[in-house]
Amino acid sequence: GALLVSERIDREELCGALSPCTLSFEIVVENPLELYSGAVEIQDINDNDPVFPSSQARLEISESVVAGARFPLESAQDPDVGINSLQTYQLSANPHFVLDVQTRVDGSKYAELVLEKELDREEQRELHLVLTALDGGSPPRSAHVQIHIDVVDANDNAPVFNQSTYKASVRENTPSGTLVTRISAYDLDDGPNGDIVYSFSSHTPAKVRELFALDSATGELRVKGQLDYEESKLYEIYLQAKDKGAAPGVAHCKVLVEVVDVNDNIPEVTVTSVYSPVPEDAAPGTVVALLSVTDLDSHDNGLILVQVSDVNDNAPKSSQDSYDVYVLENNMPGIPILNVSATDPDLGRNAHLSYTLLQGDPTVGHLFSINRENGTLYLLTSLDHEDQVEFSMVVQVQDGGSPPLATNVSVSVFVTDLNDNAPTVLYPHPNTTATYTDVVAPGTPAGHIVTKVVAVDADAGYNAWISYTLLQATDSSLFSVGLHSGEIFTARQLREDDAPQHTLVILLKDHGEPVLSTSATVSISVAEMVKEVLTDLTDVAPTNDTRRHVTFYLILAVILVSAAFFITMLSVGIFKCYKWRQSKELFNSSRSTLYRTPGPFHHIDAVRGGFTPPNFYHQVYLTTDSRQSDLLCKKPFTSSPLGSRQSTIRNGEPGLYHQIVGTASRLPTPAE
């Protein structure tokens, strides 16, 4: 049973760089029948010296290189493993460089020169250094290389890689010429000093150069040899970019290439026969042969797998059921505003998702678009808050199964307001040649409201809040304007020596950012009666007899129509009061009829600047029976004993505004 060595064993020849180095065997023992597996580990001894690829190395280093710059050196190779392999490097003493020993992923060592003190070509044109490689044996073995450094004039800019470490993965058995990755560096210099040449670093192992090829012009790293996952799972490749200057600048990067295992090894079945032939009277359970199955592949590639096919039984699921998106108006067309995210736990086509914008509203299809592959929602045109504030749409996420499953996600897009509209003057109308003149009587006391500037702003919120200031006036001490109401009133009592005609320029500003503004011009005449106003208007009108008479008759017609309207409304009011008193007496006589009694009321004030007194309103009583809703009368405004709440709204008719006063009404109690 002794296991003997039949010939001289060389661990480096049998296993190379693999550690531990083992030889496997099997032993069959009969009577009783048993199978044993064994392994012999070949231990390493320090019988190899480190070896440099060449006995001399030459470097060209610019004098402009700053302290801290690194320069890779050729690595020594030692076929021994473990402590007997290459362990460290040493550098001869010098005032400029120190040595930094680095360790690769596989545990091997390499050295880099690190500039500690900047070079000066005028002081020293070249340097001679000695690099020593030492293994860890006892005693250690070593190798030496002479390093000759030429100090050259500066090339202002060295190439720079866009990243210091690149990572890539490639399947084993990939055909030669397959692109692994592309490195990229740039150089700010012009001409040859800016032309970059890519190459392997000097300490790149020869095995890597056999497996990979680098295009010196494009930086493309391609497969050159046959990759085998079972031989090496990871390659650490050091590359450099050098310009073509007289003193070329050099940049270095590292590429980590992971070899992905493929199922390229079939299972091997080993049959070990015990005896043959088998007797016909062999008892059941008699061992005929021993079988063993092995697969050189790793992980799942080395198992006997049973695959479960996927069924499209899961609908896409969005990270949220609805989205609210806020977009500023006046946006740039074509911008992305939302990414609808969804997942599907199925596999393959069953998990391939597509995004569709359902065309419920045809307007949405013209304004919005969605990327079918990634769910990015784009805005195709510029939106206007004043046109539409909100858009609602539905995004359907559908998988590629058969039949397909889908999920709907609702999206609401809100257009937020920008201050892009200046205030618009409604009265006095700015785009007309007619002159609106408001009248005030001499001796009018301070605080009397003469007229009002009416304006609107198409924006919303704070952007539409308008303030009024007096920008220019014939007599700045005579009139003032309400900051937020736009009402123009007398600041003091009018005197006889005041000018008969006044022109006011009102500045209207909103409160947006930036502030937008406009102006309105108001003409005010100081006169005792309308005749004087008409005379003044005739004086300022163009010398055209026909137009002067037309203007006079128009003003006269307005006065007559206003008087007729007043008399008509007064008559109707008296009639309605009479009808209402009759309905009240009827109610008192018959308690069985139940309707809403007149309570606190709604009234409307209509004031036309300068022509109609601001103290009239129409009172309307509303009952549960719309046929009994009566317009009562027109009378001077008095405050309601039940209290009221007033709010001012704008009207587009020049000089006219409405005041709405509303109170609650109640039903009569059974006792009433």
From TrEMBL:
It is a single-pass type I membrane protein. The chain crosses the membrane at residues 552-575. Its main location: membrane. Residues 53-161, 162-269, 319-425, 432-544 form the Cadherin domain. GO terms for molecular function: calcium ion binding. GO terms for cellular component: plasma membrane. Keywords: Calcium, Cell adhesion, Cell membrane, Glycoprotein, Membrane, Repeat, Signal, Transmembrane, Transmembrane helix. One of its GO terms (biological process) is homophilic cell adhesion via plasma membrane adhesion molecules. It is found in: Cell membrane. InterPro entries: Cadherin-like_dom, Cadherin-like_sf, Cadherin_C, Cadherin_CS, Cadherin_N, Protocadherin/Cadherin-CA. Pfam families: Cadherin (PF00028), Cadherin_2 (PF08266), Cadherin_C_2 (PF16492). This is PCDGK protein. It comes from Chunga burmeisteri (Black-legged seriema).
